[in-house]
């Protein structure tokens, strides 16, 4: 009774809380935490692999007298290389397993929302919106975890670990590197989001229009052919696809510029680390064999931070998909099973009302009564 009362109140207020993200995060929180932990371990193994490789290359260049002097770095390179691949494979496997479980639950939920409205669905919403929700929106939600949440959390953990690690060697240099990394993990994604937000929303609308026009055209293809406007339908569809492709080209253009800016920042980081390590080695505060190790460690570290910009860029798409799913969910709450039953009753009562009107009209017909005296004359 309480759940039914809450549902009625929600429909009365016209606001439906978002239940497409948070319930599944709470339900599969341990799986998600395991995926993040595995991703962090894989990234750390990649960082340590390059760090150990740089040290091993520099140490081997000095021609050690005995192989045992570089035996530990050799074992470390092998171990980190193997564990990196193992952790990455398990992380992908566990991540897709968790996300596919969420996707299955979301599909069941969506069909349960649409099923009570099946008889009256076309009178309440366009077929293209339903097709977009079934074919694109639910599929899009799985990218929230795989391409946004998991990479972003892993990048934040690595950012903190990198700053702390640099701080154990030189605090001033750690702050300087923290600013470089903050640009990659914070400022560049914010700029990307600001530039691409409107374009992503526009692309989402264009795709929605394409779905609607395609479904309307396929369902009414006979009318298009009968009216001789088949060429017009093809032309409108091609124009819509061209507008969507134009937005995609603009997004790809910005992506190339963003990658160029990121690579320039990484180049500045490499130069800065090289100069710092060289000065530290010249001052005797850092072994010379560690210069290559500190330089090479930047590449796997920045590789783990760069996906944050791409992850943030997808936020408008997620928001549009969530808005449409919440819209369908709101219609499901407002016009759910109760509404379907009411409309079915109305359809069932329609014949009886029609029969009553027919009987009433029969009773109200004009009747001609002929007296018995005149019947013989007629």
Automatic annotation (TrEMBL):
GO CC terms: plasma membrane
UniProt name for this protein: ABC transporter CydDC cysteine exporter family permease-ATP-binding protein CydC
Top-level taxon: Bacteria
Domain ABC transmembrane type-1: 33-317
Keyword set includes Oxidoreductase: no
GO MF: ABC-type transporter activity; ATP binding
Membrane topology: Multi-pass membrane protein
Keywords: ATP-binding, Membrane, Nucleotide-binding, Transmembrane, Transmembrane helix
Chain segments annotated as transmembrane: 32-56, 68-87, 144-167, 173-195, 260-278, 284-306
PROSITE patterns named in the record: ABC_TM1F (PS50929)
Keyword Ribosomal protein: no
Location of the protein in the cell: Cell membrane
InterPro entries assigned: ABC1_TM_dom, ABC1_TM_sf
